[in-house]
Amino acid sequence: MQQRRTVFFKNLDALRFFAFLGVFIQHTLPLPEEPIQTASALDIIRSSLSFNYLGVPFFFTLSSFLITYRILEEYKKENRMHLRKFYVKRGLRIWPIYFLLLLICFVFLPTISGITATEIPTLPSIWPFLLFWSNFYMINHGVGF
Questions:
Q1: What is the separation of C-alpha 101 from the centre of its chain, rounded to a whole number of angstroms?
Q2: What is the reported pTM?
Q3: pLDDT above 70 for 86
Q4: What distances in angstroms separate CA 128 from CA 73, 96, 98, one per listed residue?
Q5: CA distance 37 to 18
Q6: For 14-53, b where at least 16 C-beta lie within 10 A, e where not — what string?
Q7: pLDDT of 33-69, one tens digit each?
Q8: I want to staple 51 with a disulfide (CB 3.0 to 4.6 A). Which of 22, 32, 69, 95 is the partner?
Q9: CA 12 to CA 56: how far, in whole Å?
Q10: What is the pLDDT of residue 11?
């Protein structure tokens, strides 16, 4: 049986860290929506730490490079791409953590909130998130949850 060797770009580790850090900061710290002239010093620091909203595009660009590289390597070795296998692997990598997040947000937190009598933000219906059209929901209804 031929052993497959996965290519690992060790030199991209620091870039992957900064891409993650930008995404993490952008999604966890509320950044100012007003013009920078009226923002506080703390808002300016937060905005700078998130790479001025470049964290997400940078993360997606880096991920796209790595995924495309693997696809091209597979095509070069086998003269074809196993599309079904590719999507199954991507789904098994992404969906478990996605559904865990939905479980935490829509089941665990409301349950804990009810037990401890603490208030959590009002959540929308879970259906847009289960049916993968949450971006369209947020476009139509805003992201105030």
A1: 11
A2: 0.63
A3: yes
A4: 36, 17, 13
A5: 27
A6: eeeebbeebbebbeeeebeeeeeeebeeebeebbebbbee
A7: 555 556 677 766 666 665 556 777 888 888 899 889 9
A8: 22
A9: 16
A10: 85
